[in-house]
Design brief:
98% helix; 106 residues; single chain; 1 helix
């Protein structure tokens, strides 16, 4: 009888050890999954930040280009106005000299 009880106790102990081993294995698996998920989340966050930085850089570059284009256009307009004013000035002087010439010739 004692041998039977001892065998049953040994069997229960073996089952208990097996259950503990399975539990430890499951806990380790869950911990690995948790770490993996955290790494993936961190990687996604870094990618999102990188993408936002790239978008901000592109926006700044686009704004700089637009600014340069506006400056070029403003400069062209100013140059055209200046040329027109000089042309008008020269034309006015020619007309004045033409009028003077006509009045002095008579």
């Amino acid at each position: 009888m004692k041998a039977l009880e001892a065998a049953e106790a040994a069997k229960r102990m073996a089952e208990k050890k097996e259950n503990e081993r399975k539990m430890k294995k499951e806990v380790l698996r869950l911990q690995r999954e948790k770490v993996e998920l955290e790494l993936q989340k961190k990687k996604k966050e870094e990618e999102r930040k990188k993408k936002e930085e790239q978008m901000a850089t592109k926006k700044r570059q686009r704004e700089d280009e637009e600014k340069k284009e506006k400056e070029k256009k403003r400069k062209r307009v100013n140059d055209m106005k200046k040329q027109l004013q000089e042309h008008e000035k020269v034309r006015g002087k020619k007309e004045e000299s033409e009028i003077e010439r006509r009045t002095t010739v008579r």
